Amino acid sequence: MPPGRRVALCSQSDSLGLPSLAVYRAAADAVGWTRLREIRYAPDNRDPEGLVATMLQGDPDVLCWCSSSPPMIEAMTEAAFRAGFRGRILSCTADNYPRMIARTSVGFMEGYTFQFPDFDDPLLAEATFFFRRPRAFFDTYNQRFPAQWSAVSWEYASILDLWHNAVETADTVEPVSVLAAMKRAQEMPHAFGPARWIGSALFGIDNALVGDWPVVQIKQGKARIVEFGSILDRLARHGQSLHRQFSDLGQLWHQRLAAQAQAKAGLESAADLTIPATAVSDPRSATVSCIRWLLRYRGRRWH
Fold it and tell me: For the segment 104-118, what is each residue's pLDDT rounded down to a tens digit?
C-alpha cells in the first residue's frame, strides 16, 4: 500500500466493481486508513471530472480507483492531474501507463501502485517462478502488439501452461479429469510461485488459485515490482474483515444467488432462501455455468 492516511474510493456498481470495492475497503481498514469518501458509479458513467471532484472533497492523501475499467482509470487519472491532486493513486491496473504519463507527468505518476508487472522486470529475471522466459515473452508480445500490453496479456499463456501440465498429469483432455488434476492436493504453482485453491467462503467454490503476488509501483516512468506479498498470509490475518465487506455489499456467493433468484422470480423477499450445501472442493460439484461465473473473480482481486 502507498503511504497515506486518508483515502477516497470509487468503483462501478456492477458484479466486477462491488467485489473489488469490498477488497479495497478491507485493505484500507487493515492499514488503519480513514475512508473519507466512497463513490459507486454506474458502469456507463462518462463523467470522470465529476467523480474526481467529489472524491477530492475532504483532501484525501490517496485516490483509489479499485477495479474500474482501463479507459475510466485513464480518464480519472488525467482528471486528478488537471485538478491539482498531488497524493498517491492506488488501482488494480495501470494499462498503458506510458500514455497516462505522457498526458500527466512523470512526477505525478511516481508511486502509482497497482498489481500487474511488466514481464521485463528485473525481479522476474532470476526468480524461480512458473512462467517460461518472461522477458522473451514480454519482448515478443510488444513487437507483435505495440502499446497493447495489459494486466491480462500474460495470463492466457500462463493459464495454458497450467492446463498443459494438468493434461500431462491426467493423460487426457477430458475437462473434469483435467480440472481434478489441477486441484490435486488443493495446491499447484501459478505464475509467481506456489499457490493454493481457495475461495469457497466468498465465492462458493475453491476456484481461486492464490499465493504470492507482486506489488507494482511506477518508478521514474517505469513499472517496477517493489515486493511480493503473500495473499494467503493476508487472508489469514484479515479474512474476516474481507468477508464482512463482501457481506455488507451483498457480494457473498449465496447473497448473489438469492438476489438473482429474487429478480428472476419477482419475489418480494429472498429472506427465506437458505445457503445450499455444496461440496465446494470437489470439481465434479461445479456446473459449467458456475465455473464460468466464479473464474471471473481470481486471486488478483483479493489484494
Answer: 999 999 999 999 999
